[in-house]
Design a protein that fits this description.
This protein is 37% helix and 20% strand. By secondary structure, the protein is α/β, with parallel strands linked by helices. It has 2 domains: 22-54; 63-296, Rossmann fold. An 8-stranded mixed β-sheet has the order 4-5-8-6-9-10-11-12, with helices on both faces. Strand 9 (171-176), helix 6 (179-189) and strand 10 (195-199) form a beta-alpha-beta unit. The chain is globular, with a radius of gyration of 30 Å. The N and C termini lie far apart (109 Å).
Length: 297
């Protein structure tokens, strides 16, 4: 801008900011790289969350193998039956009546992997005691139709309990690992359970998932949460919880915490050195029989 007064000329020049674009505050290369990194991290997080949500049931339910004959499995007393659920889905059940009159029947819900055949060694203990056995296979597992889910497992389990209860005699509801959530739901909704046995239980599968994936909002993503901690307070029948100190699948802290949620009468048996799969060889069945004897005196 120029201004002239009385023959004299004063010139005032206004300079514009001509710094390169990359020097403008907020647009430095470092900031753009940071934004790009944050965007990549966010995209990866969303992708991982979506993957876990879409395929979560493959992490919870792990059916495998095939159901061989009970005789080959070492329990020839067992009969393999097909039971039709209320919605028409057919599931396999291994069953045997009590060999001793008046002995209880064990309604057994197995863990999340394999199939019924893998639990034959446990069933041998039950049958050798003269007890009856009723062990259903889960939907979507070898020998059964359908697809696995918490809602389906519990609905089927209630039907199974009603069938066993209708036969008369005492009923022990036994859950192993994942099956502890199913067993707890049954005992919470049905009266007439003589003893609820929880072998290596969890407070909730969603709690386990939160411990394994603390960076994910698992409580929002998880469909099958098996929240035994919220159900066991509705169980009025005797509860026996057994857990090993060397369990690296479901930490023993879960068994202890679930015990705190349970009502009396309740018993907690912590087995020093036992892991997730060998509680039976560490006296589990002897403890079950002892507890049942105490309750029936």
């Amino acid at each position: 801008m120029k201004r002239t007064e009385g023959g004299m000329s004063d010139t005032v020049e206004i300079e514009t900011d001509k710094r390169p674009e990359h020097d403008v505050p907020g647009r430095s290369p470092a900031r753009r790289i940071l934004i790009a990194l944050l965007a990549a991290v966010a995209a990866s997080y969303v992708a991982a969350s979506a993957y876990m949500y879409l395929f979560q049931r493959s992490f919870v339910f792990k059916p495998s193998g095939e159901v061989i004959s009970a005789t080959k499995a070492g329990v020839p007393e067992v009969t393999a039956e097909t039971v039709r659920m209320a919605d028409g889905t057919e599931v396999i059940v291994w069953t045997a009546p009590p060999a001793i009159e008046g002995a209880p029947t064990v309604l057994f819900f197995h863990g999340n992997s394999g199939n019924l055949t893998d639990r034959a060694d446990r069933f041998r203990y039950v049958l050798d005691s003269g007890y009856g056995l009723y062990a259903p296979g889960y939907r979507g597992y070898p020998g059964s139709e359908g697809a696995p889910s918490e809602a389906a497992f519990i609905a089927d389990a209630l039907e199974h309990f009603d069938l066993v209860s209708a036969r008369g005699g005492p009923v022990i509801v036994h859950g192993q690992s994942l099956g502890t959530g199913v067993a707890t739901a049954v005992a919470a909704k049905r009266s007439g359970v003589d003893l609820l046995v929880l072998e290596a239980p969890y407070t909730a599968t969603v709690d386990l998932a939160a411990e394994q994936y603390p960076w994910l909002p698992v409580s929002l993503l998880m469909k099958d949460q098996f929240a035994s901690r919220d159900r066991i307070g509705d169980v009025d029948e005797p509860v026996l919880i057994l857990h090993g100190t060397a369990d690296d699948v479901i930490p023993v802290a879960h068994g202890k915490a679930l015990f705190d949620y349970a009502n009396e009468p309740r018993t907690l048996k912590i087995v020093e050195g036992a892991d997730h799969g060998n509680l039976w060889s560490h006296g589990l069945w002897d403890e079950v029989k002892r507890q049942l004897h105490l309750r029936t005196q």
